[in-house]
Amino acid sequence: MKRLLLSTALLAAAAIVNHSAIADDRLNNGKLTIAVFGDWPYNQNLLTNAPLLINSVNADPAVSRVIHVGDIHSGSLACTSAGILPPISASNPGWNQQIYFQFQQFKSPVVYTPGDNEWTDCHKAKEFKSGDPLKELASVRSLFFARPGKTLGLEEKSVWSQAIDFDPAFPADAQFVENVIWEDEKVVFATLNMPGSNNDALPWTNGFENPSLQAKEVADRTAADIRWLKAAFNLAISRRAKAVVIALQADMWDPAAIVQGGDGLNGYTPFVQQLANLSIQFGRPVLLLNGDSHVFGTDHPLANPSSAIGLIHHTQPVANLTRITVQGSTNKPAEWLRLTIDTRTSGVFSWKNVPYCADPLSSCQ
Q1: Which region holds residue 99: left if phi is over 0, alpha if psi is between -120 and 50, else beta?
Q2: Residues 305 and 276: beta-carbon distance below 8 Å
Q3: CA-based radius of gyration for the chain
Q4: Strand 243-247 relative to strand 23-24, pairing
Q5: Pairing of strands 187-191, 243-247
Q6: DSSP category for residue 162
Q7: Most exposed: 86, 131, 140, 202, by fewest CB within 10 Å?
Q8: Residue pLDDT, tens place only, 139-191
Q9: Burial of 12 (0-12, 13-18, 19+ CB in 10 A)
């Protein structure tokens, strides 16, 4: 069988066209429906009422996959510190396990990418100084990514994981088990660990200070993310994909981050510039899914480099990149994003928000 000249072990494996465990060949006539949400469940009330969202998604027979774009608790709740010794007294060691249980109630495969609240920000006073960021990330990986290359949810699916399919020239990339790629209906999907808080550039505090280790974390992860992003687009080009979907947590154009006293956005610029270049090279529709800002919105953030939003990362104009920021779970109305991908249409992507709670004041926020 012909081996494609691709840049990673992952993409060499992709040359096996009938690799149906990952390249999902159910062939729904080019049409897919994906449930997308993030910043959920943000508090105990939302966790208690998690079946409201889960049942709403499960009741839609068209949904073939669920994507969670990060932040599985509020930035004002303690981190879990599960399995971390000695335990931190301010932590909430059972939270992540409860979220894992809820993920397993979805009928469709669940793909989750971490947000800043569950690891990057655990050093902060508002998260009760409850965790060392890197230990918290290790804890998240050990639970949600215990089986590299497998999704969560009742219907397990295989995906390519950077833990297994890393570029052999960069073996340290194997630590990024949370970064995955899959293909379905001639569409390539990828998730990347790109958290808020300016891509973990805000200094760790409250006894967790370690500038050199933090700088290494940011540099290593961002470089691995960029290599994984390139791998996804190389796969899409080699397989003549109709579209690419990228899911991550950070709102890399958050206007609140660039006001005086904000977190800043410069930590995302190298990644965004690569995203711009790769989207132009691909030349077909690209969709970016993110959470972080909690308010639903859609835009084309790189279409006009001279606009206020376009000036943030100084890229070339990119007309084929669309972005959706999903609604946060503490904002009204309580809803999930029903994303339809139809490769028979020129735009490929369409979407609507689906309310899942009739009484948000008492049970959904």
Answers
A1: alpha
A2: no
A3: 19
A4: unpaired
A5: parallel
A6: T
A7: 86
A8: 999 999 999 999 999 999 999 999 999 999 999 999 999 999 999 999 999 99
A9: middle
**Residues ≥6 apart with Cβ < 8 Å to 260:** none
- Nearest-5° angle of CA 267, CA 268, CA 269? 100
Residues 26-363, CATH architecture: 4-Layer Sandwich (3.60)
CB of 148 closer than 8 Å to CB of 122: no
Tokens standing for 320?
Answer: 């084929």
Distances (CA, A) of 321 to 170, 241, 314: 28, 15, 15
**Strand partners for 63:** 33
148 to each of 14, 178, 209, 239, 246, how far by Cα in Å? 17, 8, 30, 24, 19
Residue whose tokens read 């079946």: 51
What amino acid occupies position 127? Answer: E
Write the DSSP string, 98-125. Answer: HHHHHHTT-SS-EEE---STTTTTTTSG
Q: For residues 185 and 179, give the distance between their C-alpha atoms in angstroms, rounded to a whole number.
A: 20
- Could you read off the pLDDT of 306-365 as tens digits, one per residue? 999 999 999 999 999 999 999 998 888 999 999 999 999 989 999 999 999 876 455 666
The pair of structure tokens assigned to 313 is: 């990362």
d(CA 279, CA 318): 7
112 DSSP β-pair partners: 68
Beta-bridge partner residues of 40: none
pLDDT, tens only, 220-271: 999 999 999 999 999 999 999 999 999 999 999 999 999 998 999 999 999 9
Q: What is the DSSP string of 21-36?
A: TTEE----TTEEEEEE
Give yes or no for a contact between 47 and 98, defined as CB atoms under 8 angstroms apart.
Answer: yes
The burial of 30, by beta-carbon neighbours within 10 Å (0-12 exposed, 13-18 middle, 19 or more buried), is given as middle
Q: How many residues does the chain have?
A: 365
Q: Strands 321-325, 297-299: parallel, antiparallel or unpaired by DSSP? A: antiparallel
Distance CA 288, CA 250 (A): 11
Each domain of the chain, given as residue ranges in start order, spans: 26-363
